[in-house]
Amino acid sequence: MTPTQLRSLRLPVMVAPMFLVSGPDMVIAAARSGVIGAFPTPNCRTTEELDTWMARIKAETKDAPGLWAVNLVTHRTNSRLADDLELVAKYQPPIVITALGSPAPAIETVHRYGGIVLADVVNVALGRKAAAAGADGLVAVSSGAGGHTGQVSPFAFISSLREMFEGIICVGGAISDGMGVAGAVAAGADLVYMGTRFLAAKESLAVPDYKAMVVGAETHDIVVSDVVTGTPASWLKPSLDANGYDINGEAQKTERNYGGSDLGKRWKDVWAAGQGVGAVKTSEPLSAIVDQIELDFRAAQTRLAGY
């Protein structure tokens, strides 16, 4: 799959894989809407559940105009990685995204069946390492992204990566409407990660209170802290307050751990979102959100053509 082939999508958008939020309904709805749907494998408690999810997604997106992807945590603490890779080989998702570690463990498996590997990176140094490991694309997780986030401006990040990488560049970070998508593409990106905009979608696995908090939130409600997982992440501050996290108090060392059920417990009632949260005004079907993004994207194209 090449950047040219990705342009056959309705929009250059991936509904980003969101922990405890993205499930089969969201992935299928995204693919049927002509974009890319993705989910992180840790959203499944067991490999048996993951097998069921992937079987359903593959069957129900067979004739869809969009694509589907899985997100693998390749950090050494993920003891289930080998089992997840076996299911990747079985169901052959077109795109595999690696996060919180090198893409190397996934590359041979995915390339064997003709898929592509995109590697999450938060800075140029990690981008170089991922490219050297053989990643087909880089996901530039930039400042303003929800969940685990970077610190570099999306536009500066795209520019820096383009100087050293000719593959697919996907960028995410506070891009929450079609105008932002058009701007990212104009700056050199091939795809745009959009997570926060879809948090309150009808197909989201987010609990009702989480969706309500997202709908009512603005940019000033987002804070970045490593207090939950040991890695900097963007959180809805009211959810941190409700769970007793004092981000202004004495710093506490949180050990990085991305395996086992403890991670899910830590994220269950502490809710992530990006700086684009203000664009979420209501809970509606994913297809309606994509429709609006396309309208804004086309309007931005027209506006750019006028210069």
TrEMBL record:
Keywords: Dioxygenase, Flavoprotein, FMN, Monooxygenase, Oxidoreductase. Belongs to the nitronate monooxygenase family. NMO class I subfamily. This is 2-nitropropane dioxygenase. SUPFAM superfamilies: Inosine monophosphate dehydrogenase (IMPDH) (SSF51412). The keyword Flavoprotein applies. GO terms for molecular function: dioxygenase activity; nitronate monooxygenase activity. The keyword NAD does not apply.
